[in-house]
């Protein structure tokens, strides 16, 4: 076996479709990694632009182009890349996202030091129209906090994740095509049974947000898939109410839509309490873990309340009346909620005035 035939340490899998305008920057960020022992597998899903030509012309022998025989969608395209991977670790990356130079080195070092970890993400920053801003993900994590967050939302940016290849291949398939646009969230639910999921809190990935991005174009499909994922997760706790709770969690915690009324808010608060109590009873958490879990849960409760207040669908009295005992307000101070309540009140008053004008016009 020659050196060129030796299996690399990391296999980077990129599913590409009509990415010619952005993929060069992505490829450059990978080939500039401080860890050089990798292969980059770009699987083209029958692009109609110059994606294949850009990848084929890339001047680095570690970059390999694989083409789908017919368009299969992003999940099947990634699974093809996973099947081609020869590395000890598989790194995920979308064709429009960017890696910081030390991403792979730091993730591999963590894996080597933590043999119980099966999947590792990193923090990420948002890249939009050339401007880089922090993400809204938890700023500080522990594996226990990441595990908790998988109960109520998707806690990791897909393009930041790396996993042990031998563990990933115990899943069949690695990502499920029937859970399109939430296949990563589903993967985290299934792989957690084989070991820990963790995150490096350094922002080692730039997640690009643009009008053509999948998350903008297929929100309905993404949310429907996420509901399925959480329904499966909640079946043991809520029986025939699992889908209802999952829909509320996706709509109001993940998608940040305002709750319709106090009753809906009360259901969400009660569900959060049940899910969190079950998690703490079934996972080993130290005092720092518990503090982070309670704080991040309170932050989400505060966000749900603030969104409803600003929309005018609930009042501050509703938020305070149905708040579970163990939930604070997170980053949403009482002053912030009061301000949101004033905005919501103004919107309700404006709505009443508009209705009154419509009635008078009709008369």
Structure description:
The chain is an alpha/beta fold. Helices cover 49% and strands 16% of the residues. The protein has helices spanning 23-31, 51-56, 73-84, 103-113, 143-149, 165-168, 183-191, 214-217, 219-238, 242-254, 262-282, 287-311, 316-322, 334-362; strands at 10-16, 38-44, 63-67, 89-94, 98-99, 117-128, 131-134, 162-164, 196-208. Strands 1, 2, 3, 4, 5, 6, 7, 8 and 9 form a 9-stranded mixed β-sheet that branches. The longest helix is centred in the C-terminal third of the chain and has 29 residues, at 334-362. The termini are far apart. The mean pLDDT is 90.
Topology:
Elements: E1 10-16, H1 23-31, E2 38-44, H2 51-56, E3 63-67, H3 73-84, E4 89-94, E5 98-99, H4 103-113, E6 117-128, E7 131-134, H5 143-149, E8 162-164, H6 165-168, H7 183-191, E9 196-208, H8 214-217, H9 219-238, H10 242-254, H11 262-282, H12 287-311, H13 316-322, H14 334-362
Parallel strand pairs: 1-2, 1-4, 2-3, 6-9
Antiparallel strand pairs: 4-8, 5-9, 6-7, 6-8
């Amino acid at each position: 076996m020659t050196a060129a035939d030796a299996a690399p340490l990391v296999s980077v899998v990129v599913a590409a479709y009509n990415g010619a305008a952005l993929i060069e920057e992505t490829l450059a960020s990978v080939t500039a990694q401080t860890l050089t022992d990798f292969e980059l597998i770009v699987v083209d899903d029958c692009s109609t632009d110059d994606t294949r030509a850009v990848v084929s012309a890339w001047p680095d022998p570690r970059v390999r182009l694989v083409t789908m025989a017919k368009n299969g969608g992003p999940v099947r395209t990634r699974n093809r890349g996973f099947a081609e991977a020869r590395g000890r670790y598989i790194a995920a990356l979308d064709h429009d996202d960017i890696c910081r130079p030390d991403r792979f080195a730091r993730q591999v070092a963590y894996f080597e030091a933590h043999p119980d970890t099966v999947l590792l993400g990193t923090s990420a920053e948002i890249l939009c129209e050339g401007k880089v801003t922090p993400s809204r993900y938890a700023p500080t994590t522990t594996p226990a906090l990441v595990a908790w967050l998988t109960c109520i939302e998707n806690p990791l940016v897909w393009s930041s994740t790396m996993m042990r290849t031998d563990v990933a291949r115990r899943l069949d398939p690695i990502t499920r095509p029937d859970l399109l646009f939430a296949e990563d969230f589903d993967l985290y639910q299934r792989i957690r049974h084989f070991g820990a999921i963790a995150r490096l809190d350094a922002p080692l990935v730039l997640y690009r947000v643009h009008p053509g991005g999948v998350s903008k174009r297929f929100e309905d499909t993404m949310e429907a898939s996420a509901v399925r994922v959480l329904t499966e997760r909640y079946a043991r706790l809520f029986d025939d109410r699992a889908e209802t709770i999952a829909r509320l969690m996706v709509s109001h915690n993940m998608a940040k839509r305002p709750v319709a009324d106090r009753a809906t808010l009360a259901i969400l608060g009660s569900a959060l309490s049940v899910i969190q109590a079950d998690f703490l009873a079934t996972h080993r958490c130290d005092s720092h873990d518990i503090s982070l879990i309670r704080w991040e849960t309170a932050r989400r409760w505060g966000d749900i309340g603030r969104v409803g207040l600003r929309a005018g669908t609930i009042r501050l009295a509703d938020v305070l009346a149905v708040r579970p005992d163990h939930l604070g307000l997170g980053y949403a101070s009482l002053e912030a909620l009061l301000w949101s309540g004033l905005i919501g009140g103004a919107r309700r008053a404006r709505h009443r005035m508009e209705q009154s004008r419509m009635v008078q016009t009709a008369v």
